[in-house]
Specification:
single chain, alpha+beta, Herpes Virus-1, 3 strands, 17% helix, 10% strand
Length: 78
Amino acid sequence: MLQLRPNCEHCDRDLPPESNIAMICSFERTFCQECAASVFASICPNCGGNFAPRPIRPPKSLLRYPAADKRIVISHSS
């Protein structure tokens, strides 16, 4: 089950569960589209893989499987 992290791990931009600009890598590291593309050139600084759009969990499913609320911000060297 994806955690649906609440923010970009680089710039701390809010990425709510319904966000269509959230990107994830294979380890669920979460970034906004802008950071993924312009800061990291579409290569994850953690795993070296690519990014994919994070799926949107339907509101009904969020009731049973809520999004994560712990914010993660990591200083990445780009």
